[in-house]
Amino acid sequence: MNLKLQLKILSFLQFCLWGSWLTTLGSYMFVTLKFDGASIGAVYSSLGIAAVFMPTLLGIVADKWLSAKWVYALCHVVGAITLFMAAEVTTPGAMFFVILLNSLAYMPTLGLINTISYYRLQSAGMDIVTDFPPIRIWGTIGFILAMWGVSFSGFELSHMQLYIGATPSVLLVQLTFTLPHIPVANQQKNQSWTSMLGLDAFALFKNKRMAIFFIFSMMLGAELQITNMFGNTFLHSFDKDPLFASSFIVQHASVMMSISQISETLFILTIPFFLSRYGINNVMLIS
């Protein structure tokens, strides 16, 4: 299979599985399972909890002991199993636990897929800056199409969205077997555990500009999580008003929410041009 096509499929499936449930799980829990807001917030907090430490830990494994592609495959095996389990869960406590397990498996794959893509592109003598964005954009396209598929199938308030999400995970495991061997980097022999865990990065906060950048990023992350949790739920709440109950936006809230990802897709395409022409500082200022 053509290298770029293979990486595009990998990126497409990686985010397709997330798009099938990330923005609609809140509505399913609130409307169908009757969870309260605090319980929904707790479930979504599991993504952040997992993202704090799990990518680093599995990154160490991929650097020292096991090829990144096999770590990636194992993560998706766990991810598929936990999504199948989540589809059968009906209580807040159990949902938190299962989604936490899923997040512990999924969050590291966001970094691992970049590692795999970068290695393959560099091995083929390609430029990551110019060749990777057109590949990565297929991830966002996958996210959008998954949102639309779940919405037009009438599964925004159904557990079926979780079954749909598990399917790309299974396909990704199979696709991993077709990838060439990716050697263990083994670059961390003489590094301290502080460095391996990335804790020395906190020294960057001494730089005022970096501190402002990190704080700004955290605020954007918090805003995004609120939208993921309750944006779809908010739009569905209008079905109680007869004036809006049958409107397209209420019936297909995910399609409306996908405007965010469509915007992302368009801007990803412009990154190589703007970075080369204006530099990272001006690009950040514009954004």
Automatic annotation (TrEMBL):
Alphabetized, the UniProt keywords read: Cell inner membrane, Cell membrane, Membrane, Transmembrane, Transmembrane helix, Transport
Q: Does the keyword Manganese apply?
A: no
Q: Give the highest taxon in the source lineage.
A: Bacteria
GO CC terms:
plasma membrane
Q: What is the residue range of the signal peptide feature?
A: none
Q: Which PANTHER family match?
A: BLL5896 PROTEIN, NUCLEOSIDE PERMEASE NUPG-RELATED
- Write down what this protein is called: MFS transporter
Organism, by scientific name, is: Salmonella enterica subsp. enterica serovar Poona
Q: What does the organism's lineage look like at the top?
A: Bacteria, Pseudomonadati, Pseudomonadota, Gammaproteobacteria, Enterobacterales
